[in-house]
Fold this sequence. Notes:
Two copies of one chain form a homodimer. In chain A, helix 5 runs antiparallel to helix 11 and helix 9 packs antiparallel against helix 11. Helix content of chain A is about 75%, strand content about 0%. The termini of chain A are far apart. Chain A is built from eleven helices and no strands. By secondary structure, the first copy, chain A, is mainly alpha-helical. Chains A and B meet through helix 6, helix 7, helix 9, helix 10 and helix 11 of A and helix 6, helix 7, helix 9, helix 10 and helix 11 of B. The structure holds a DNA duplex.
Amino acid sequence: xxxxxxxxxxxxxxxxxxxxxxxxxxxxxxxxxxxxxxxxxxxxxxxxxxxxxxxxxxxxxxxxxxxxxxxxxxxxxxxxxxxxxxxxxxxxxxxxxxxxxxxxxxxxxxxxxxxxxxxxxxxxxxxxxxxxxxxxxxxxxxxxxxxxxxxxxxxxxxxxxxxxxxxxxxxxxxxxxxxxxxxxxxxxxxxxxxxxxxxxxxx
Amino acid sequence: xxxxxxxxxxxxxxxxxxxxxxxxxxxxxxxxxxxxxxxxxxxxxxxxxxxxxxxxxxxxxxxxxxxxxxxxxxxxxxxxxxxxxxxxxxxxxxxxxxxxxxxxxxxxxxxxxxxxxxxxxxxxxxxxxxxxxxxxxxxxxxxxxxxxxxxxxxxxxxxxxxxxxxxxxxxxxxxxxxxxxxxxxxxxxxxxxxxxxxxxxxx
DNA sequence: CCTTGTTTTAAACACTTGTTTAAAATGCTT
DNA sequence: AAGCATTTTAAACAAGTGTTTAAAACAAGG
Lengths: 203, 203
C-alpha cells in the first residue's frame, strides 16, 4: 500500500485548512478537493466520506490541543512557574493556530458533533499529576482554595477567547487587525499577571 | 399592511431560534419554515431571502448584546461597583441566552459575515462615558494602568467563554451538564473577585 | 355578488450537495 | 511485453439547496 505522502496527505492537509477555517457545515467536498488540487472522487476514495475525513481532522486538532496542555504541566517547575509558562506557551501556540479554539468549540456544539471517548483526553491531562500538585499546594496554603475544574476554565477563557473574538473586538472597538495584534501582546501580560496573582495570592 | 404578529413574527422567531443554535450554514430555509409551521415560500415572501432574514436576526442579537453592556455602565455607581454588577448581570443574561456569544463570534468570522457599520455599536458603548470615567480613575491611582481596550476583552473572556465552552469542558473533564452548571456558579464568583481585584488593586 | 389587494399554497426552477460508477491512466512484477 | 492491482478521472446519481412562479384562498369594501 502506497506512500502516505502525495495525494492522500495533500487532501488531508487541504481538509485540515478548510475545515479549521470554515467548519464542517461551512465547506463542501469539492472545495476541499480543489484546495488539494485533486479530483472530488479522491476525497471519498481515500477517506470514505466527508464526515469520516472530518472526524480525523477533528481528533487531530483535539489531540494537538490537549497535548499543548500536557506538555507544560509535565515539567518539574513550581506550580506558579508552570502556570505562567503555560500561559506564555498557549499564547504562542494560538498565534500560530488561531482557528483551533473556535473550531473545537463550534464542532463540539454541533448536533452529532463529538463522538470521541472523553476519558482519553481527561486521563492525558490527569496523568501529569498536576491535579495532585494543586491539592498539595492548596493544603499548604500556597494556592487559593478553588475547585480544580475552574482553573483550566480560567486559563482557557483568558487565552482562547481573545483569539476567537478578534473580529468581534475589531468591530466593536473599530480597530485594525494590526492594532488588535499589538494590543494582544499587552493583554497577554495582564492575563498572566492577573491569573497568577489570583491563584497564588501573596500570603 | 398587516398585523406584524402572526405569520411574519412566527417566522422571525423560528429563524432566531434556528439560526442561533445552528448558525447560517448549519440550517436550511425549509428547516426555518417548518419550525415556524409555515410554508417555505413565506420565508422569502416576508424576508426576500435567507441572507436577508439572517442579517435581521444577527443585528438584533448584536444589539441585544451591546445593550446589555450599555445598561450597567450608564448607571451612577462607582466604577468598581459597576464592574461587579456588570459581571453579575452578564452571567444572568448568558444563562438565559447561552447561544449568543458563540453565534456572534462564528458569524463574525464567516466570510461575508458581518456587513454592519461598526461605529454604531462603538458609539453606543462610548456614549455611556465609561471610558472617560476609567481614565479619571486611572489618573487618580484608583484603577490599574491598562489599555482601556483590554478591559472589555478581560470581562468578555471570563463571562462568555465559560458559556461557549460548556460542551468542551464537559467532555475534557468528563462531567455532566448539571455538574458544570453547578460549578459555573462558583466560577462566576471567582471571576468577579479576580477581575475586580486586578483592575482595582488595594492601595 | 364581484372586485381588489393581500396572504398562502404546491409545484417547479436551476443549481449544489455528498457519493458512486465505470472507464481510463498509472505503476509494478513477472 | 503482458497482466495485475492501484490510482485517477469525468460523468452521473439521487437528494437537498435557495428561490420563483402561478394559481388558489382569503379578507374587505363597494
